[in-house]
Design brief:
The chain is mostly helical and 144 residues long. It has helices at 2-14, 30-37, 43-52, 56-71, 79-89, 92-101, 105-114, 118-127, 131-143. It folds into 2 domains: 22-77, no CATH class; 78-144, no CATH class. The protein is built from 9 helices and no strands.
Length: 144
């Protein structure tokens, strides 16, 4: 009987049932939602929580997780996926964080292309190790 139940649950999850953990996002308990958000690797639910959750602590946890994913601190997301996510976020603070701390020059370059603000761009020009990222910051600064 147990093996039949396991097969049915396994079949249900392969057929598109809600991924494990997402049900917790609908919890009335903000602490439960925060715990779920801290482990999510899917950008769509994280973006939704970050933008729409009524509890500021839950939104902050989603923002922290997004930053971790974007800078490359979590396995499972390709550079292309992270660049797309960065463009969708449209948040200057998040863009600045990635421009400063992105693991790969390519993600920092994508962030610099979205960045604004003389202070941030000047910092990137002075401190980034990659010449292409520094050049992009110079060009962006000249455009502003």
């Amino acid at each position: 009987m147990r093996s039949l139940l396991r097969r049915l649950l396994s079949f249900r999850s392969r057929r598109g049932a809600e991924p494990v953990g997402h049900a917790g996002l609908r919890s009335e308990d903000p602490d439960q939602r925060r715990r779920v958000v801290r482990h999510l690797c899917q950008p769509a639910p994280l973006l939704h929580v970050w933008r729409h959750d009524p509890e500021p602590r839950v939104r902050d946890a989603a923002g922290d997780r997004l930053r971790t994913l974007l800078v490359g601190g979590a396995p499972g997301m390709s550079l292309t996926e992270r660049e797309t996510l960065l463009a969708e976020c449209d948040d200057p603070t998040l863009v600045a964080h990635v421009a400063r701390r992105g693991r790969e020059p390519e993600i920092r370059l994508a962030a610099v292309r979205l960045a604004s603000g003389q202070r941030l761009l000047s910092e990137i020009i002075q401190e980034d190790a990659d010449p292409a990222v520094r050049d992009a910051a110079k060009a962006r600064l000249a455009d502003d």
